[in-house]
Amino acid sequence: MNIKIMIVMLVLILTACTNTQTAPIYCNDWDQENIEQGGIYIRGELLVAFNEEVTQQQAEEVLASYMQIEIDHSSGNRPIYVIKVPEGKELEWICTLKEEETIKNVELSYEDELES
Fold this sequence. Notes:
Blueprint (H helix, E strand, L loop, with lengths): L2 H16 L10 H8 L4 E10 L5 H9 L5 E6 L4 E5 L5 H9 L4 E8 H5 L1
Antiparallel strand pairs: 1-3, 1-4, 2-3
């Protein structure tokens, strides 16, 4: 086989491999639907709600067990925690946190939710 043809084929193969983009992985329909409809979420921020029997101390211990999470603030008697995660990793963190038995719900923090 001609060396020029081999080089062109190699370049095409390498280009095809490096140009692949993976689709985001959603762990809930709510976020997928909102993002696809143009919902604007706050980068690096999630909302987390715990099951009713979980105390505030237990909730904060669960969140503290993840080294990359920072509790920004919480509100209400049954607090909804606003947590900081690495930007661009929000969907991954949703999937990770949904595995926690004590967590009732975790979702992206949308800009319009904070305006209400």
